C-alpha cells in the first residue's frame, strides 16, 4: 500500500485549530495533562464547570492548581493502572476555594507504547443529581397506577385470540408462581411490560412492589445510582436513597430494554445478581436484596453476545425462562379484538360511544404490517377516535388522519402488492374491495408459484403459516386447488 503523504505544516495547523474548536464546542469538560502533570487541554465547558479561566490552568502543573492528595489526581490513578477509569465521581477544591463535584471518564494516551498523557471527559454532578431526583420522582408518579403494588395489568387483561398469544399467556401463567428469573423477548410494543406486570400479579410477589426501569431511557451515569441507591455524601447533594433493587424488595424488578445496558453496567448487574446484595454508591457495606428479576429485550441477546455486546454470563443469569411475544403481523387474528378493546378504552377516556368499526377500516388494519405492533395499533385507534364526531357510533376509514392512512397504505402497497402505490388506487373503487382483490391476487399467484405449498408460500411472503392460513380462510382461497391444477 502506498504510504500517506506527510501532511504539510499548514495542513497540520488547520487540523489542530479545527480539533480545538470541536473540543471547545462540546458540553462536557475536556481536560488533558502530560504524564508530568502539565495541563495541555482545558476546554470552555471545563472553564464553566470549575468557574475559572483556562489561562490560569494551561501550562501549569496539576499539583499547583488542585488541592488534592497526589494519589487522588485523575492523572496518578490512570498512570498507575494504565487503564481507563470509567464512571467515576469526585469532589475536590480548587485553590480558589471553589468546591467542584464531577462525574468523569479518564483515559490513558499512549505514544509508541509509552503512556504519555491522560485525558478526561467531565460532567457536572449537581446537574446529574438533579436529573436523578427528577427520574426518581417520575418513577414515583408512575406508581400512582391502579394497584397499590404499582401495576395496572393482570394476565386477564391481555387481549388476543390467536394461538400464539394464547400460548404465551399459558406459559406466563405457568411460570408466574415460580421464583424463576424471566426474560421476555419481543419487538417493541408487543406487550412485554404488560406480560411482566401480569406475571407479577399472578405470583407470590404480588403484594410487594413492581418496579419498572427502562434501561434505554436512563443515562448511563445515572443508572448505577438509580439501581444501587446512594448514601448521604457520596457526592455533593447526594442523600440516602434506596436503589430500585431495594425498592423492589420481595417484589419484582422489571428491567426493560436490558439489551441497552453498557458492558461495564452489565458487569455490575451480574455481580449483584450473583451476590444478591447491593452496595449503595458511597456506602462501605452491602445490603442483601431479595426480588424477582424480569427483564425484557427487543434484540436477540444471543446475537449480541456473539458480537461481545452482551456478556454471556449475564445472559445465562437472566434467561432461565424465556417468554417470546410474537409481533402483531404474525397474529393478525388479534387485530380486530385489540381494536375493539382500544375502542372501549378510548370511549371511556374521550367520553364517546363508538360501538362499531367500519369494514374498510378493519380491512386496512388487518392488512397492515404493524412495525410498532400493538402500541402502534393503540395510537392509530386513538388518533381516529380523536377525530370522530361526538355523536358518532362507528369509527370509519375517513376518521384516520390522512398522514396515517397514507403511511399505512404505502406500507401495504410496498409489502403486499409491490406494484401499486397509494396514489394509484383506482378512484371510486371501494378501498376494502380493492385491498381484498390485491391480497387475493397476491396469495393466488404465490400459491401457483409454490404448487399450493402453504409453508413455502408463507416463507416467500415473509409471514407465518398460521397467518397465511388465516388469510386464505378469510378470502375463501383453498390451497389444495393449486396442487390439483399443477399436477394435472
Ligand atoms: N395483548 C394485549 N392486550 C391489550 N393491550 C395490549 C396488548 N399488548 C400490548 N398492549 C398495549 O400496548 C401498549 C404497549 O405495550 P407494552 O408497553 O407492554 O409493550 P412493550 O413490548 O413493553 O414495549 P417496549 O418494547 O417499547 O417497551 C400498552 O398500552 C399495552 O397496554
Automatic annotation (TrEMBL):
SUPFAM superfamilies, per the entry: Homeodomain-like (SSF46689), P-loop containing nucleoside triphosphate hydrolases (SSF52540), PYP-like sensor domain (PAS domain) (SSF55785)
Entry superkingdom: Bacteria
Domain Sigma-54 factor interaction: 158-386
The entry's keywords: ATP-binding, DNA-binding, Nucleotide-binding, Transcription, Transcription regulation
Pfam families from the UniProt entry: AAA_lid_14 (PF25601), HTH_8 (PF02954), Sigma54_activat (PF00158)
Domain PAS, first and last residues per copy: 15-68
UniProt KW ATP-binding keyword: yes
InterPro entries on file: AAA+_ATPase, AAA_lid_NorR, Homeodomain-like_sf, HTH_Fis, P-loop_NTPase, PAS, PAS-like_dom_sf, Sigma_54_int
SMART domains with a match to the protein in the record: AAA
Transmembrane segments: none
The protein's name in its UniProt record: Arginine utilization regulatory protein RocR
Organism whose genome encodes this protein: Sporomusa silvacetica DSM 10669
